[in-house]
Structures are given as structure tokens and as C-alpha cells.
């Protein structure tokens, strides 16, 4: 079975085509500056590899769809319902799913939700102290970047030869961290929405909700006004004043003496360092820390900054190993293994979708 896994951006469509269950990559590519998904899909189809099903790394559809599902009208309605909680993500997937439905009629479409991996979180880590009606309507901690954190858990276990108490640090334009106790997510920084936890490039992280209410009342702002501000000009961009909030731009500006950029990086590093310590406490110890995502995998300076001062936990980066090399590798010399890893969300999505589709075929055959 050949599975097409699109990785969708606001103006781009990266993809892999994987033969399952061998997991051989038959094709990969990227369509930039996408204005019409129909045209982008046609580019993929003319690449040569047959496509038997399409699997999406979907983001947020609430408590009912916290797993992997064949896409039907119910899935689409749930994505629309939770659009206000994940506007930058759900809108893209809704547009793309409908485009694939139209362009590839009869081809099964699957949604592997990012929230699936975090369904193992205990209630004490996922419940909010909100009125009971809120919880009944789905206001709980879901967690995101699930495919990435799951891949990191599996890849780390393969590198180390055992399951561990692991902190997975997915750091990039969108950032989150996860406490993984022997393969199971027990806590993560993102909550009800991807708009929480660590600071992201343009999206704010954790925020006292009454600060938003205070500013709304003071300026007579609408929900849409506040949502746009916090999603598009918050986070590292809001802290630094540098449009886009790209960590590479912040590091360059800080090196040139920009104090706001330096402060934004300090906030980001402090949040990461504090979370590693908190998750070590939550798991009763720490065996490994893995850095992934565009920043986590590639920025030796950010890795070093996040680990500095955590020697009491057994974390000791090797400066030479941390500063050179490429590919998946261990960059530490202490008892806690620190790794730099390339994530592979598409592979996790393909595995989930393949299990769903083959189980469905088996049910039909019986």
C-alpha cells in the first residue's frame, strides 16, 4: 500500500510517499507558494508513484477524535468546531482535505491527530481547574506535536537500546516539550490549544487568561482582534520586535547587540530549562533529553543554553560533540544522554494510517 503523507504549511505542501509496511520512501517533494491545492496535488500525482491513500497529520478535533480516523463528514465538522482553538492549523487542513477529496475521488483519506500520543496523560496532568461545564464541553489539556514526540520516543529507544524517562524537546517555529516515561506521554507543554506552553515564533506561550480579558475590556477588542494579535505578532516576535520571530534571526540580532532579541532568547531558554527540571520531577528521574525540530536539531548554542545549569540532574553536554556532526547522535558525556535528532512525523502518520486501513480491510474481509 502506497501512502501519501502531506505536511501542510500556510503556503507550502511538503510530502512523502511511503510504501507500507516496508516504509520505503517512494517519493518526496515540496510545492512552494501554493495558491491552489488542486494544482499542487496534480504536481504530486504526476511524480510517478501510485497513491492508494492519503494520510494527514491533522491537529485538533476535540475529545471524540483523539486518534486516527477515516475522514468523513463527522471529522470535517469536528475540525470546523475546533477551528477557533487552532485557527492557523485547522483552516489549512480543512482546505487541503477538501481539495484532495475533490481531486482524488475514491481514494481513502485518513486523519492521524496530533493529540493521539498524549491521550495517555493521567487526569492529574490534563485537567484544568475550570467549571465542570467547561470540562464537559471538552476544555482539557490535549497536547500537540504528538507525531514528532512519538517518533523521538521510538528513535531514542532504538539509539539507547532501551525505553527511558525522556524529555522530548521539539523546538522550532512551533515549539513544545513532552515528558515521556518509557514510551508514554505523561505531560506536555501545549494544552487545550497549540497556543500555550513555550513561546513560539509568532504565537504566545503560557499566559494568564485575565491579561487577555483585561486588554479586551480596556480597548474594546473583539475575540477575533485578540486571537489575531496573539497568534500573529506574539511569541518571540512580540518579545523581540523582529517580525517572524525566527530563532536564527534572533541569534544574529543578539550577537549584534540587540538587547530585545537577547532577552527573547533568554525567555525561551529559561522556559526550556525549567521544563526539563519539572519533567524530571514528574517522572521521578531523568535518563535522556532529545532535541528535535528545526532549532532543537540544528542549533548547538540553544542546546547548550538549555542544558547549562542542569548538571545536578546528570546533564553534561560534550562541547565538541554538541558543536559538530550531523544526523541522529548523542552529544553528551554525562549519565543523562542528550541527543540531537531529526524528527520524522510523516513516518508516524503513515504507520498509524496503515494500521487503520489494514484493520478496516480485515474487518470487511471477515
Concise account of the structure shown:
The chain is α/β, with parallel strands linked by helices and 366 residues long. The protein has 15 helices and twelve strands.
Q: Biggest sheet: strands, sense, closure?
A: 6 strands, mixed
The CATH superfamily label of the largest domain reads: ATPase, nucleotide binding domain
Specify the helix fraction band: 40-55%
What radius of gyration results from the CA coordinates?
A: 21 Å
SS class: alpha/beta
End-to-end Cα distance: 20 Å
Task: Tally the beta strands.
Answer: 12
| Main β-sheet, spatial strand arrangement | 3-2-1-4-6-5
Q: Can you write the helix and strand succession as a string?
A: EEEHEEHHEHHHEEEHHHHHEHHHEEH
Q: Which class of the largest domain in CATH terms? A: Alpha Beta
